[in-house]
Amino acid sequence: MIRKFWAVFVARNKEFVRDRSSLGWYILFPILLVGSMAWMFGDSDRAQYKVAVVGDMQLLDGHPFMETRFIQFIPNGDIEDAQRKVARHQVDLLLAAEDSSVLRYFINESSPKGYVLEQILSGRNDGRTLQREVVTDQAVEYIDWLLPGILGMNAMFGCLFGVGYVIVRYRKNGFLKRLHATPLKAFEFITAQLASRLILVMFLTISVFIGADYFLDIRVDGSFVDLFLMTVLGVMSMIALGLLIAARISSEELAGSLLNLVTWPMMMISGVWFSLEGTPQAVQLLAKIFPLTHMLEGLRAIMFDGANLAGAWENVLVLLLMTLAFLSAGAMMFKWKPE
Q1: What are phi and psi of 143, to 5 degrees?
Q2: How confident is the prediction along the chain (339 residues), in pLDDT tens digits per residue?
Q3: Which of 231, 287, 221, 230 is nearest to 87 (CA)?
Q4: Could you tell me if 104 and 131 are in contact, meaning their C-beta atoms sit under 8 angstroms apart?
């Protein structure tokens, strides 16, 4: 028994070590992940709160609140835009520097961070009259803002891993080789996989949304039809990305590493958990290359701003182009047989 166990144990280890692509990614992926996390979040003095400031910044020179650690002050030239960001939990508080003796500030009463900042401001004031204003017309509950991110993240995992692993397994066990003997073309096979996964993911996403809306009364200012179509576009683009990643891979270990390499950055910087307002410009530009970013931007514009697909045309266009590009590249690179 021990000899049989040892033989299988040694054989599996040799198989993994000899698969240089998988071994390389297992070594490289943690390094890339830790390095990127250190770059984005490694600053020990990184701000935990975001405060937008409109008006003359010089009027706030020397104010004790402006010297508080862990608060990032973000200049904004448009007070209406800044109020909207407070309402959308993109920033936690808004200061209006318009008078040397009076300091107006705007708060979203559903924001826990806004409450903490208001207490800090009250305790670190320099004697000016504080004028409190509540953002009410556009205010969004945090759970409303968070729900699109949760649904998008769930769809992302279902699309990428649900498609990627299946294609790799088909190739590895010879199923694709048998399909290749039929008149079936690569593009036909890929689009069929997309349609199948699209129906499944959309059914699950809609079911979760209906349940959340029943219990939490989720805010939707726009059309449910537009919301559905935007979700379809986002799901299609992520399925197409999963198909592209799995187009030539025969190793499930390598597929897992590549899929993690894509899903982790999307989960961290696509706006699932927090807004990218105030983050380095490089991070915001990097987020734009991921379909989940555009999907969430479009969903939140429809839900909270009452936008339609035409109003979110940039996100719609990017998702369409990504879907077509990923499908086309995947079809051209598609390999029926394992190496």
Answers
A1: -65, -35
A2: 677 557 766 665 665 566 555 555 556 655 665 565 555 555 556 778 899 999 888 888 888 898 888 888 988 878 888 888 888 888 899 998 888 888 899 998 888 898 999 999 988 888 888 899 888 766 677 788 888 998 998 899 888 888 888 888 888 888 888 878 888 888 888 888 888 888 889 998 999 899 888 888 888 888 999 999 999 999 999 999 998 988 888 877 778 878 888 888 888 888 888 777 777 788 888 889 999 999 999 999 999 888 899 889 999 999 999 999 998 898 888 888 776
A3: 221
A4: yes
Number of neighbours of residue 198 by Cβ within 10 angstroms: 16
* Cβ-contact 129, 103 below 8 angstroms: yes
What are phi and psi for residue 28, nearest 5 degrees? -80, -40
> What whole-number distance in Å separates Cα of residue 129 and Cα of residue 100?
9
Residue 242: count of CB within 10 angstroms of its CB:
31
Measured distance CA(77)–CA(92) in Å, rounded: 17
Please state, in angstroms and as integers, the Cα–Cα distance from residue 85 to each residue in 45, 68, 93, following that order. Answer: 24, 21, 9
Token pair in block for residue 151: 């649904």
Helices 252-269 and 224-245, packing angle to 10 deg: 140
Helical ranges in the chain per DSSP H: 2-18, 20-41, 79-87, 112-123, 142-172, 175-180, 186-216, 224-245, 252-269, 281-287, 291-305, 313-333
Whether 234 contacts 294, CB under 8 Å: yes
State phi, psi for 129 to the nearest 5 degrees. Answer: -75, 125
Give pTM, 2 decimals. Answer: 0.76
Please tell me what DSSP assigns to residue 181. Answer: T
The residues, any chain, with a CB within 8 Å of residue 31's CB and separated by 6 or more, are none
